[in-house]
Amino acid sequence: MKNFEPEIVAFCCHYCAYTAADMAGSKRISYPPNIKIIRVPCTGKVDAIHIMKAFEKGADGVYIAGCLEGDCHFKNGNIRAKYRVEKVQKVLDDLGWEKQRLAIINMSAGMGERFAQTALEFTQTIKQLGPSPIKIINTDKSQLEVS
């Protein structure tokens, strides 16, 4: 698995995390290219189904990045997102998956360096965990079909 490059989906709030990613780009701070950013109006709008769909579609890891706690532009959207992440982590754990495949990260719009650093750290975590269990199941199925 040393050639494994994880696919990571990052749901980023429009006001803070997405702007932090843009700031990282403006400052030419690189972060892993395997991070696929989905801009959302608020992390509170990211539902459990969106997270599970990302895994179903092949993501090895998912993180939700939004405003600092107490600083949400929609009052408490990031707090709702935090509770959803905890619930989905429990579901992942119940399924026998590593709950570290899902994370929530808080940052302000001016934290381009933090965005890049957390993207790198999350990518390293997922590399250590290996491919998503769905990818492993699909690989096993395709090998059965070839035989």
CATH level 1 name: Alpha Beta
Would you tell me which CATH topology applies? Rossmann fold
Give the biggest sheet. 4 strands, parallel
Strand percentage lies at: 15-25%
Could you explain how this protein is built, in words?
The protein is of the alpha/beta class and about 150 residues long. Helix content is about 50%, strand content about 15%. It has five helices and four strands. It has helices spanning about 15-25, 50-55, 75-95, 110-130, 135-145, and strands at about 10-15, 35-40, 60-65, 100-105. It has a four-stranded parallel sheet, with helices on both faces.
Write out key terms for the chains shown.
48% helix; Rossmann fold; 4-stranded parallel β-sheet; 147 residues; alpha/beta; 5 helices
Compile the SSE list and pairings.
Blueprint: E1 8-13, H1 17-26, E2 35-40, H2 48-56, E3 61-66, H3 77-95, E4 102-106, H4 112-129, H5 133-146
Parallel strand pairs: 1-2, 1-3, 3-4
Short description:
This protein is α/β, with parallel strands linked by helices. It has one domain (8-146): Rossmann fold, CATH 3.40.50. Helix content is 48%, strand content 16%.
